[in-house]
TrEMBL record:
Residues 202-221 are annotated as: Disordered. It catalyses: NAD(+) + ATP = ADP + NADP(+) + H(+). GO terms for biological process: NAD+ metabolic process; NADP+ biosynthetic process. This is NAD(+)/NADH kinase. Transmembrane segments: none annotated. The keyword NAD applies. Gene3D superfamilies: Probable inorganic polyphosphate/atp-NAD kinase, domain 1 (3.40.50.10330), Probable inorganic polyphosphate/atp-NAD kinase, domain 2 (2.60.200.30). GO terms for molecular function: ATP binding; NAD binding; NAD+ kinase activity. InterPro entries: ATP-NAD_kinase_N, ATP-NAD_kinase_PpnK-typ_C, NAD/diacylglycerol_kinase_sf, NADK. The keyword Iron does not apply. Keywords: Kinase, NAD, NADP, Transferase.
Length: 296
């Protein structure tokens, strides 16, 4: 007997919900903002828009399907299974947040606000019913987006859709020895190392690349290539600045051997979910074995 699919809706707390959590009630939160010359009306409108999108998308689930819901803050405790179809309702960043917890499940990105056009959340809530039926029938078109992975020499791993960052969490100087796939090495002191995908090229990596003359071309989102940048490398008698950017083709990895305490590696800006690194550990960063399966 075939397993019944499950539609899993992923969302995040709205600014209104965060305001109420902080102040206890809406009235107290609204009073706090009014004393600063601000209004909660825009928060209410944004919250209503998201809730309407969730309701419309939720009503599109076929009657025989199972369903589930998870808030962004609970993703690391939610158990996805192979028969899930993940419906992300929100902005592009929410797709990146959930991608690391998936392994081939199709993802439908739903833009809750028609005023914000997304690259990953490209569908309106009214398209969900049609897309769910296509997924069930096996006719949905999917884009396989490259992801990045950091792997320590003791076997711990971390994946990311946009980029992996290695450095100090408080932005102190990070010290390490960097080794490129072609065998070049350099001891460095910097603000950290950024390894990004084609999806991440529209974000952090794109900002770095635009500010650097001669920076490598950014890859496409489905291209089997990553790009890497060293941030603010500092020259000294023991550290260099020659190896500060490049690309990783195919299965090539960038290797870093940690030479200071307190360094971390995290993906897609989620510092809470990170690898804590200590002196002497080696981290290899390259393309992940899995990809985001985005329904287009």
């Amino acid at each position: 007997m075939a397993q019944v699919p499950r539609a899993v809706f992923v969302h995040r707390q709205s600014a209104l919900q965060q305001l109420i959590n902080r102040h206890g009630t809406y009235n107290q939160g609204s009073f706090f903002l009014s004393n600063k010359g601000l209004s909660a009306k825009s928060m209410v409108a944004q919250n209503d828009t998201v809730q309407d999108a969730l309701a419309l998308a939720g009503a599109s689930v076929p009657p025989h399907w199972r369903r589930g819901t998870v808030e962004r803050g609970d993703l690391d405790r939610f158990l996805f299974d192979e028969h899930d179809v993940v419906v992300v309702v929100g902005q592009d960043g929410l797709v990146a947040n959930v991608a690391k917890y998936l392994d081939g499940q199709p993802v439908i990105g739903v833009n809750a606000d028609p005023g914000n056009t997304g690259v990953l959340t490209r569908h309106g809530p009214d398209a969900v019913e049609r897309l769910l039926h296509r997924v069930e029938a096996g006719t949905a078109q999917c884009e396989l987006r490259t992801m990045a992975e950091a792997r320590t020499d003791d076997g711990r791993t971390l994946t990311a859709l946009n980029e992996v960052f290695l450095g100090h969490p408080s932005h102190q100087t990070a010290r390490y020895r960097l080794a490129t796939p072609d065998g070049r090495t350099e001891r460095q002191a910097s603000s950290g190392v950024l390894v990004g995908t084609g999806t991440g090229s529209t974000g952090w990596c794109g900002s770095v690349q635009r500010e650097r003359p001669g920076a490598p071309r950014l890859p496409g989102p489905t291209q089997d290539q990553l790009v890497w940048f060293v941030r603010e490398a500092w020259p000294s008698p023991t550290t260099g600045t020659d190896l500060t950017q490049g690309t990783l083709d195919g299965a090539a990895t960038l290797s870093l051997t940690v030479e200071s305490e307190g360094l971390v590696a995290f993906g897609d800006g989620i510092e809470a979910d990170r690898l804590v690194l200590s002196w002497g550990e080696r981290v290899d960063i390259g393309p992940a074995g899995k990809r985001l399966r985005l329904v287009v």
